[in-house]
Amino acid sequence: MANFVKQINQDQKRIIHDKNCSDVFTMAYGSELKFTKMDSVSNTGFKSNKYNSLWSMFNLNSEKIFDSYNVDYSEGGMKTTLWESILDAYSTNGMVMFEVKDQNYRKSISGQNIEVKIPLTGTTSATTLYSAYIDTESLKVKSTNGVCDPFKIDMAYSEPNKMFTNDFGIGYVYQLGTNPIMNGTYDSNCYDSGITLLMSNDWSPWSGSSSAKTWSEGYNVVNKYTKNAAPLITPNGPNRDVVAGAIFNNSGLGFIWAEDFVNDFNWSGGTGGTGTTVVTFAPSEAYINASDIDTSTKLQVDLIMNPKDFNTSLNQSYIEDSIENGSNCNVAYNTITLNDSQGRCLVVAKSSTPIVKTEGDYSIITIDIPIDGDVVDSLQKTRGCVYGSC
Hints:
With 390 residues, this protein is mainly beta. It has five helices and 15 strands. Strands 2-11-6-7-8-9-10-4-3 form a nine-stranded antiparallel sheet. Strands 1, 5, 12 and 15 form a four-stranded antiparallel sheet that branches. Strands 13-14 form a two-stranded antiparallel ribbon.
């Protein structure tokens, strides 16, 4: 069997990113969705609660940092912005944390269509929170890839506004060329903060100033912002919208800090504790519906054989057949190896059937080499639909 060697040029190699987003399904309910309480800094048990370290996910690591944010937005603070209510949570009210088991979604939760139902006491027995994105003019434009493309904001899988996430030290770091990648792939042109904000129709502490919006509008609608079918968050000013909570897309950790929901959360209606320990609820009382995402990164290599390349073989059966027929037969092969500059084997690619190289013709083979595994099926494939609608 002959061994043939040919150098692969740089322009024959490229990195391919595949992404798959599922339909909306009930991602977690019942025992799969766990709740606990995070204390405010004024609580006597603040230092003993292990979950309180998670305030750092909102860059609230100390009272000194809190003080720097507890001023007006014009002075670099969170007041008069969509984040103002989290300041009250940190200083006085605390917040409710929930966790989606990582077995229930693939690499990430899409921020486009999230619905979270939680149980309450008092006049309202429950409320539902919906994901929404910040109104950002630069993202309400279409791609140059085609007239039918949606707005950029409809391609983002987490909050794409840098000013009210990264600039407050919340979410992933903005780094042009890395995040966003800016490589021509449309969704990667959006900054990925890794966090999605949650809104509720039952939470409007600045009555009369916060704009009247129905956050359930546009839920589970494809390209809802392009179609003007869903409201966007006004982030600051006298008509600012009030964020009730947020979810971190990759970790599955969610937080609810709207004062009414924290104070009226129905801890006693759950199983497992009263807020100081993990609590779960019946499937109809608490659940999260959303889409999940899986990605795959591959090295794609084009192997180009020119008409004069690889037209002979040292395979004895090939030689005997050539002599018997009086001509050079076409060469067939089923194994290709990729080696480094020192000849060490890096990749072995095998074809299920022999590939024929016809003498005098070009032959181009493309090999996909998985770097982090293939895209796998979502749990949505087996669950099929959202809770209560099956």
